[in-house]
Specification:
mainly beta, 7-stranded antiparallel β-sheet, 0% helix, flat, disordered N terminus
């Protein structure tokens, strides 16, 4: 099954070097490599970056508390004038996970530059909400939303569930909640990659009854690693 992504009419988010027709004034970014190990979250924050989010939980089922981190570049050069009342912060993010080891140390097992998109358009609201990163029951969860203040009526949220196995965080679940703000039409999709099944429901915010779910059978396939997914707002299932 293939989900249909809404055509944004915008350039691709999250690119390290913005396209020529949109990237004027947006500095290209060179991502640093994170340390292989450290004793705390701050040890994994490169110079010129800041720790934006930190979530704790046992992600590899060894009884020790691991760390999921969102790191964000902190450069004034990446805060650019787009004609609005505030400068647009185009500083990119790194999604990282460090697993606990003996002796109070952590080791880096994930540093991804793509899933959390770099915002290059002043009409795009912040895609990572306060609840955008979480650790629950040994699973890593990421939620991103697209909301355009101008240039599009469709808003949606993409939610990802990852499980650490065979050396990487593999996608085991994907949910998408979409709303057309003009018509009130909605479309929700949920896929369980472990079972190879899912459902879709089309409805309206004005409907008195919940939308009827239609079963989907995308089928089982090898579970993909987080680093294979690319931009989380452009992911299509």
């Amino acid at each position: 099954m293939v989900l249909v992504c809404v055509a944004l009419g915008q350039p691709a988010f999250g690119e390290e070097d913005p396209p020529d027709d949109f990237g004027e004034g947006v500095p290209a970014v060179e991502f640093p490599s994170l340390p292989a190990s450290g004793a705390s979250a701050k040890d994994f924050v490169p110079a010129g970056w800041k720790l934006e989010r930190e979530q704790r939980g046992d992600l590899d089922k060894d009884g020790r508390e691991d760390l999921a981190l969102v790191l964000r570049m902190d450069s004034a050069e990446n805060r650019i004038d787009r004609g609005g009342p505030e400068r647009l912060d185009t500083n990119p993010r790194i999604l990282a996970v460090v697993l606990a080891e003996g002796g109070g140390r952590f080791r880096t097992v994930l540093e991804d530059h793509a899933l959390l998109p770099r915002v290059l358009d002043a009409n795009v609201e912040e895609p990572l909400d306060e609840d955008g990163l979480s650790v629950s029951r040994g699973l890593l969860k990421v939620k991103l939303r697209l909301f355009l203040s101008m240039g599009g009526w469709t808003t949606y949220a993409n939610s990802f569930t990852f499980r650490f196995q065979e050396g990487c965080f593999r996608l085991i679940g994907f949910d998408r909640a979409e709303l057309h703000r003009g018509s009130g039409e909605t479309e929700d999709v949920s896929i369980n990659y472990l079972t190879g099944q899912g459902w879709k429901a089309k409805g309206s915010i004005e409907a008195r009854k919940p939308a009827k779910r239609v079963k989907l059978k995308p089928g089982k396939r090898p579970l993909r690693c987080l680093g294979e997914l690319g931009n989380g707002l452009e992911f299509s299932g």
